[in-house]
Amino acid sequence: MVQALRPALCAVLVLAFGANAKTCLPNGIPEQNRLYVSNATDQPSPIRFVTYNWDSARVINHVAEILVSEVLGFHVLRDPGIFFWATDGILKLAGCHDMACAEPNANAPRADVLLDTWLSAGSTTLKQFQAKNGAVAPEDVGSMGYEGREALHVQGEVRRAAFADSGLPLEYYASYNLSFHEPQKYFDTVWSLPTTSLLNCTDTFYDQPLEFRVSSAMQNYLRWTGDSEGVIQQNGEYFAKCPSELPAFWIAPSCRQNVSRCIPVICQGQGYTEVFMHWATTYGIPMAISHRSTVDAFLNLVEHFRILFVWHEPDATLIHVQPTKVILPEYSPSAWAAGDFRTAPTATYIAKLVSQSLELSSPRVRKFIENMKIELSQVVELMAPNGISQHDPVTLLTPSDLQWSSACNWIKANGHIWQQWIPVTTDCTRGFGIVNADATPVALRSEAVGCEVCPAGRFSTVLSDEIGTTFVCRACEAGWHQSVAGQTSCLPCDPGSFTALTGQALCSPCERGSYGISSAATSCLPCSSGGNKHWTTSKEDEMDLRWIEVEGATSQGFCHCLPGWHLSPVSGDCEPCMDGSSCVGGGVLQLLPGYYSAEGSPGSVLRCFGDAARCPGGDPGTCAAGRDSSSPSCSLCLPGLQPNGPECVDCNGGDYVQLSFLALLILALTGGSHIVFALQHRSSGVLHFRLLALALCMNQLITCSQLFSVMEQVQGIVLEEPFVSFLEFFSFLSLEAVLGSVRSISCVTRVSAEVNLLIRTLLIPCFFALGPLMAQVVLRAILAVPKITLLKTFGFLSLLFYITLSSTFVEPFRCNLHPNGLRTLQTRHEVFCNFSGTHLNMCVISFVVCLLPVGFFALCSYVLLVMFPRRVNDADASFVRACSFLIMRFKPGCESFTIVFLFRNLIFVLSPMMPASGCLFVMGILLVTSIILVAYFQPWRSSVASQLDIVVQLMLLMILLLNSLTVQDVNVQLIMILCTLCASSLIFGILVATAYFLVQYVASKLRKRFAFFLCHQRGSSSGFVRLLKMELKNKGCSSFVDADNLTDLTQLFRFVSSDTQMLLLLGTPGVLKRKWCLGEIATAYLAKVEMTILSFPTFDLPDELFISNYQEIVPEVVELAVYGLGLSEVQMALRSLKQVKDIPVGDSFSRGRLNEIVSILTRDVETSSTPLTPKNHSGRIMTASTTSWTDYIILADPSNFDAIATAEVLGRFMVSNLPEKGLSPCVFTVEDDVSKDTSNIVLLLSEKCFHSEHIAHWLLQSRVPDPKLLPVMADTKFQFPNSTELRSASITCRVDHTAYAQVIKAILLEVAPPFICSESSEVDLLIRSRQICNRLYGDVRLLSTKMVMVGPAHTSERETDAEPVLESSAGPADRPSVTFSPVESSNLSLQLLNRGTSSSAQKQTVGEADAVSTAEVHLASETISQAF
């Protein structure tokens, strides 16, 4: 922008400054060809001159301006401001407001040249300004060539008159001494001067007090002259004593008594009042000193009165009065410096001042001003035509034409003088150097075309040749520098810095890790001679107590290791500081609390695992009190001491007492446990349930304590208070306190690590076995307790403390990783894990000892998986009691959870050998898996115990997750591997699930999971449904029955829509009023699943009225809306039943009709033998023609359709249940009779079964063979008959009431086991059938025996007839009838089962009874496929 405006600005300046331009020299450079210079803002500017208000300054400025403009060719401009004081000119050149120069003067541009500046010897104005403002202060480029003199003068006319009259030379000071001469007669008196032209002593001069009132000046005068009469002292201030009658004069002592003899002396301004009075007093000069009021008054006094006056030279104002200087004794610098002014004043140095910027903007002009020298006579010659100036000193003046003409004439006449001032193009000034056409510095003038400022990295030095002297720019040598352009010398690089090349502007500081001890260095010395890059140069900040890296180090003392490194005393070089140490700088290593290193190898840092307080940190080799500092990690105590927290203390008797008490407590607890087991064994193993629950809770508590101790072993977890104190408090439950008590042995001798391991793994377990052994000896002598109880106690203790016992054998493999890369044992911190020496011995011992927990695990697995099922089948109760410590905690069928928990605990113990991340991952997996298994199987004997176990493991998992947040040494790579495995498993699982469901979907389209969905109403057709499913299965068709296949009610309709090929609706009277059946029908209709109706005789299809009012008939149908089935869908499904295929079932049950239905459904026209007539033990039912082969017969009410179907189902189950007994039951039909060979009869109790003629006929016939007759509850609607109902049944059946009632009462003496198809699944029915078989071939009495027990019936005793029936089967006699619920019926059957299968009815322990039930469940599961 500036460059673009430069031409326009130049044009404006030409118009402004060239309109009235005058030319002096004929061949001078015209205005339009002159140049501008660039000012501070890089704008074109003329050379600005500023001048003072006296003639010599004005005329000399004209000379300089003419030569600069017409010869050098620069535009010049005279500043309008005209100054009287040198201070004003200095500020103008600097561009400042005041001497402080805090802000530049923006209102006025800075001037460039100030000539004829008077700098008196005592004035320090310029020097002080340069010192404070060196960057802008003007520069003194030398003397004007003449000196300025200010002195006392006398008019030429007066001097000549005195000399002519008396030969008195008034130009000499001695001529004024009144003791020898009378000089006053040649001067006017003080009264002859006009007072208006004078200032009184108390007046001011330009707002400043006259020297009469300057106390310091008057005090100095008094000091040197002793003229106390001429000075007044007031309040510590000193003033000149001016007489009241002459208030404008200070009278000298020589004429003070006679003022008429005084010679008037007129001053103008400050500076000489005190000096003149010094002269007057010292030399007897009769002075009366006063000050002029104005310049015009002064000139008038000098021109019209005979006086002495102060004037200076060169000046032409008073040249017409021919002033002559009064000569005084020669100037004495020392006297004037001390304040003694009795000698003549010195000449004043007159300087040429230029701005600092002129050297850069126009070096030729500066060189011209520097060369400009003019003699005093030439100055007087220049001023001669000017006459006397009539202007006031503070008035702003401009040069007159006369002054310019005088300067021009002088220039024309004295060319030989000013030609020497003009610099040649290669005549460079200081700070510049000769350059060629490319502005490159050169060394010879012949190659130069001009001058340029010397750039940084070079200095300006004098070059002398035949032409003269100039300056060249030389490059700074290596080791030297110059950062400022235009300098005359290079500076040596300070110590700590260097330059490797010549011509450098700046010295480079020595890099960190090097130093320089000498100046002018060309390179730095490295801190490390071996090339280690981990050295640096630093110094300590004493305020912040930290080390700061520095560049430019000046000595080797600055060399230290980098932060994070320390100076190794072994290698003498810097080595890295490991974790646990602090190396903030200076090469000094300090250990953090909880870390240790030996004095000889401070860099090998070990972490103090366990109690970190034993390593207080600080200097290497520091340990807590009593600790052996030579042992790794301060792990050992000094000889004779034992550990007590972080410190080691002296052994005392209390330690042995504590150890003894602990030993006795162990003996008491283990021995007491054995006594409890022995007494329990003597009581046939009966254990109170609440005592068992208490034992389970204690087991959980001890297990948690042991798992806590394992968690403590995980590396990287940081445990802090209060959790640490909590773990320490409960450590006694995990045997850690017992194992840790071995430390007290150190009071006797220092035990090696191998011996310590043997004590922990063998001696302490053996000591635990000592208590039971001692108790066994006592009990065997007193109660003859068998040895088997001792094995039971050992097993219990091993199982209880399995985690702690297992963790001891892995001690040599649980190592802590230290910052130095070494590993030490978690339990013996002084042993390094290096598989050599002590560690190798411990590994061998551990390998041998590990056979104990591993063998115990293998033995438990063998007992529970192999031996226990066999012994249970053999009814070995003693074995069950002996193994009760393994099985008594769990429900029957869940005994294997002992192995699961042992395996979990074993892996839990091994996991701390892994890195922290992997260990926590494995522990978490173990806990999550355990929680899932317990939640799913509910294995504990008590439901509360299972819930407690889940809560405990959830809390353990939460503690584990919280501890994982404190892990420090996280193995990110391992975590990422685990994350990848988990993510891969997740994606793989999702893909497998997706593929599975896709296959299922495709398969469901091609072939459904279930061929038939049996939609039925429970209680009315459950037996037929069960039998139909069995028949369809024989044909290879799978069927869905909710009692067998439905575990989640929300999935019911999914089975219909997705997994069913055909929905079979068993049309019983109330089936269409069940909301779930309607939901199944509606789902099948919407999913377009084929439907078929098996209609019973009383079933009718719904009419339109029924369908329209369905919501009023079945209000709960609205509940199907949550499954997406609205009323409209249900109604459409009901209407669709009219188009559904309908297969009549028949009025009564018929095996032939059942076969036809199955054949129609399966589209099997083959007339093979029916599944109801299998061969003996292949699961078939014998027909009436083969009843001679039957082991027992099944009786059911032929008029009850579902009862007959239930009998068929029971027969099938009984055939397949115990085929080794040769059972082949027969279901009686109306054509069959009870044979005299019949030995076993099963009677199905259904609703009003005793009102059946066929039942009455068969029961009365059964008295002849006298069989075992077992009633079975087959219907929830069955009611035990009272006497009234018995009589009604006899009448209905047309049989003898007495005989019939006696038989019924005898039959109902037996507790009827349940076999109810509507309330049982397939597995449940199988188990019930087994129970029925066991009862039938067990302790069921003969019918005759029970009839004897009942006694003969008397018809007159109607109220008592029912008593035996009610008491034996139904409860109290105050109830006329009892209807058994399914639960009550099941309880009755379980009571019979618990009485055992043998006639001896021996008692069984809880474990045995459960074992039998478990075996039955297992057997039922194995034979379920054989039931059909």
Automatic annotation (TrEMBL):
Q: Where are the transmembrane segments?
A: 656-679, 691-711, 762-783, 790-810, 844-868, 896-914, 920-938, 950-968, 974-999
Q: Which CDD domains match?
A: TNFRSF (cd00185)
Gene3D superfamilies in alphabetical order: Toll/interleukin-1 receptor homology (TIR) domain, Tumor Necrosis Factor Receptor, subunit A, domain 2
Which UniProt keywords are given for this protein, alphabetically ordered?
Answer: Membrane, Signal, Transmembrane, Transmembrane helix
Cite the InterPro entries for this sequence.
Answer: Growth_fac_rcpt_cys_sf, Toll_tir_struct_dom_sf
Signal peptide location? 1-21
Q: Where is this region: Disordered?
A: 1353-1381
What PANTHER family does the record tag this protein with? INSULIN-LIKE GROWTH FACTOR BINDING PROTEIN,N-TERMINAL, KERATIN-ASSOCIATED PROTEIN 16-1-LIKE
Q: What is this protein called?
A: Uncharacterized protein
